[in-house]
Amino acid sequence: MNPDSLVSISDISKEEILRLLRQARYFESHPNQRILEGKVVATLFFEPSTRTRLSFETAVNRLGGRVIGFSDASTTSSSKGETLKDTIKMVSNYADLIVMRHHLEGAARYATEVTDVPIINAGDGAHQHPSQTMLDLYSIYKTQGTLDNLTITLVGDLKYGRTVHSLLEAMYYFNPTFNFVACKELQMPAEYRQFCTDKGIRYNEFTDFSPEVINSSDIIYMTRVQRERFTDIMEYEKVKNLYNLNAAMLDDSKENLRVLHPLPRVNEIDQDVDDSPKAYYFQQAKNGLFARQAIICRALGIDIPEEK
Amino acid sequence: MSSKKELAVAALRNGTVIDRIPSSVLFEAVRILGIERLDKHVTIGNNLDSKELGTKGIIKVADTFFPEDVLNRIALIAPTAKINIIRDFEVVEKYHVELPSTIMGIVKCDNPKCITNNEPMRTRFDLIDPKHRVIRCYYCGHSVTASHAHIK
Which residue, A157, A201, A206, B39, is the most exposed by fewest CB within 10 angstroms? Predict the structure, then answer.
């Protein structure tokens, strides 16, 4: 097992999170470098995810490293019944770092146990996706100038949305106040509400996406409400448009408010929000590149400068 | 009645008595401890009267002393179980089983999308809430109370 692996955001300390954010800032001003020259990074996408894979591969390419891997497990031996263990052991012979995405939960944690090559979890089912969390944190840090004492409103699917769960866990170091806005079916699960209570994190729950909630927020983190999450289709029809955001709703919001979304969006953010200076979801995706450059260098034990 | 019970326990010269096992899980406890594979004298009683449990089961194994962490495995299904260590007809040690902080093997994760249900590997659960006896899969994070845990 390699201690520099990153499987879950809870694997790293507050100090490490802050260091990674300052390093992401450095990469934002110096995105092209040769610091990974001679390094081979394997991107093993047992489950397709074009957005995440391209972001990781761009991060490696811009730092001068080489990429091997696959973007679909159907072309590999795992479709012939090879175990994950064997695939990881085989690739470990070739690569200095493995970035992996898998449809099974806990796959990345298990992979760290069968190899000494560092593993970066690029998503394991509905479980963890720490590089998404790092880019969310970096987006918040960049737009607010701090992570401390912010009011963050999470909207939409709070039950199944792993990005909101990981963000909640990562933000606990920074004294946040959370607003959870969701319909009954998609409320924040009890274990995460318990987590907030145990850690002394303030939170309020709403079923209305009201002006009061919007206007008190520093960050609004939108997520997609998916039809397949509902057992009762009538329920879905009832709530599907309750958690949509349009530009007029931002009229009296705070100056520093920024709207985030892990993407892809469907209709939960109206197109007219895109032109608002408070819309930040496209830049947020771009920040993923810098956050991932920092995460890759951490996993490879490469020292890089920090920038405030 | 009570003298008979004492006699039953005292009949063991050396070994381990596992008492106060809920009747419904007695044979599961036998299986978890691997008692079927032992070649020593084993006495198993079930549906015996118990003030606390209504009915209970008891397992007596001669000339066998299990490590404590092995016996603690049955705390998953039989938290009431009590261990008596017998040497030369005397009870030399008594203790209640306790849920271990880490449970390797034994428990099957209920999450069908968990890696442990799809790879030939050992499961691992961590005790995250001793008061409510909640254990969590180390791999996928799925939690379950010990009494609802699915024993392999």
Answer: B39
The reply to whether residue B141 touches residue A103, judged by beta carbons under 8 angstroms, is no
Which residues of chain B neighbour A126 with C-beta distances below 8 Å? 113
The answer to whether A105 contacts B114, with C-beta atoms less than 8 Å apart, is yes
| DSSP β-ladder status, A66-70 and A40-45 | parallel
Q: Could you say which DSSP state residue A28 is in?
A: H
Task: Please state the ipTM of this predicted complex.
Answer: 0.88
All domains of chain B, ordered by start, with CATH? Answer: 2-96 (3.30.70.140), 102-151 (2.30.30.20)
Cβ pair A104:B141 closer than 8 A: no
Q: Whole-prediction pTM value?
A: 0.88
The domains located in chain A, with CATH, are: 32-128 (3.40.50.1370), 131-285 (3.40.50.1370)
- Interchain proximity B119–A83, CB inside 8 Å: yes
Give residue B28's pLDDT band: very low, low, confident or very high (50, 70, 90).
very high
Q: Which amino acid is residue A252, in one-letter code?
A: D
- Asked if A191 lies within 8 A of B116 by C-beta distance, the reply is no
Closest by Cβ to B140, choosing from A84, A127, A191: A127
What pLDDT, in 10s, does the model give residues A46-100? 999 999 999 999 999 999 999 999 998 887 777 778 999 999 999 999 999 999 9
Find which of A101, A105, A169, A197 to mutate to test the B interface (most B CBs within 10 Å of its CB).
A105
- Check if the beta carbon of residue A295 is closer than 8 Å to that of residue A131: yes
Which residue of A lies nearest to B123 if distances are taken between CA atoms? A110
Pick from A85, A106, A126: CB nearest B116:
A106
Half-sphere exposure of residue A29: CA atoms within 13 angstroms, side-chain side: 11
Q: Does B30 touch chain A (CB under 8 A)?
A: no
Per-residue model confidence as pLDDT tens digits over A210-224: 999 999 999 999 999
Token pair belonging to B142 = 């799925």
Report DSSP state, residue A124. Answer: E
| Rounded CA separation A3/A117 (Å) | 10
SS3 (DSSP) at A90: helix
Which residue of B120, B121, B140 is in closest CB contact with A105?
B140
In whole angstroms, what separates CA A176 from the centre of its chain?
18
Distance, CA of B144 to CA of B114 (rounded, Å): 14
Do A159 and A186 contact (CB within 8 A), yes or no? yes
